[in-house]
Amino acid sequence: MKVLVPVKRVIDYNVKVRVKADQTGVDLANVKMSMNPFDEIAVEEAVRLKEKGKATEIVAISIGPLQASETIRTALAMGADRGILVKTDGDVEPLAVAKILKAIVDAEQPGLVITGKQAIDDDSNQTGQMLAALLGWGQGTFAHKLDLESGSAKIEREIDGGLQTVEVKLPAVMTTDLRLNEPRYASLPNIMKAKKKPIEEKSPADYGVDVTPRLKVLKVAEPAKRGGGVKVKTVAELLDKLSEAGAI
Amino acid sequence: MASLVLAEHDNTHLSDATAKTVTAAAAVSMPVHILVAGANCGAVAEAAAKLAGVEKVLVADDALYAHMVAETMETLLLSVADKYDAVLAPATTNGKNILPRVAAKLDVPQISEILKVVSADTFERPIYAGNAIQTVQAPAGKKVITVRTTAFKAAAEGGSAAIEKIAAGNDPGTAKFAGEALSKSERPELTSARIVVSGGRGLGSAENFKLIEKVADRLHAAVGASRAAVDAGYVPNDYQVGQTGKVVAPDLYLAVGISGAIQHLAGMKDSKIIAAINKDEEAPIFQVADFGLVADLFQALPEMDQELAKRGR
To answer: Chain A 184-243, CB below 8 Å of chain B: which residues?
Structure first.
């Protein structure tokens, strides 16, 4: 079974983002970029499937600028077999990403697509579900655990009240939550090996997809700041203050 | 035209998230209709009909919708979407699971987790874990929106909407419910509790989390946790407060042994009052706390328990 893993290049999760003074977006200049952490979990899950003999080939896909090929290299170093870079300039909305991925799925015919539940830049949490809908496939979002069976998969999901299991027919789309696994660090030999793995370069036009954004971003602003308060010395004083404030 | 709100419920109770989404929907397009999809969910439909400002409640009562599986919900929502210029759902795990499928099939962008309706086509939403707020304008046509419920007041009761049964859609057969393990708790629900007491990695073990629970019970509070505490296995995943967990905005948020990572702050910084107990006086949580106590939680929590008992709590 072939597994597709879409990965996104985003501002590293340790970086404190800065809103640009002209409020057109956040400052991306000279900022460390990395693979979206949820997508790392997706790559890891795919590699584990391959190690268990359940996946035969892992294709990492990224839609973004030329530098997104570095993100694909990271996936290749973790254990993916080859990459597809769909080169774009500027932001691509989840629906357009899903349309490109659908075209790639049509060509590659994977048994499973695994991707992060959301990207930590736009926090949309849409792409996996949109892709599944466009394909008419089942989905297991916010995955906590995956059990592959023949022709179907049991996916345990993190939901508001606890955990839920769905059984989806394959092929299907799965989106990862935090506790699905702990991604590995690529070893130096694997990083070297990844340099020789092929990355195919494509454009959205190759898939007949218009990536012009549909939503117009009018402004990006800093959130309202919350001022720090006072320090108290004892538990009793803390409770007094909370009582005075009407909180308890 | 009108807007349609997908009701959040457990087939017995209508979640408060629905009433909050109704408030957002009313600002987008009037009148507001609610869709209740479930199994034996008559009581939910009746509760939905009582929300002020709701004109009609559509009910699809069928075994197919007992667990609101996304693939079946997509078909159902698409069967009624024609009549609405906006479809909204609370940004619960259900809403997030279902709505993007509907948006994709309608070929419109989804606007996720709105914080504010600026005008009928313009919305504020958080990006980068709430470290920036984006104002976006949707194109003409249908709008598909998930709503961050902590940002909206619940619609009051006092309405008497008509209830209309609608037929179940067909089952695409691509996915089915296969079980669930829900946390059982006598405590208030995390996202609607007036007081939340949360613990972090500082608690050190699942056993020690009982210290949090004791204090929470004295305050009739819900119990939350940081991602670190959940990852360490002290408490189940549904306790997690933060950007990728639950977003809460109670009257009082008491953070104990939580350093205050950006990820966590994103889930609680809209609380009315934040109090923090941490032994590290440099912990970032103190930068957002109204009241901070630098103390060892293993002394402070039992002391708080006794002090609350003394005060008759």
So the answer is: 214-223, 226, 228-239, 241-242
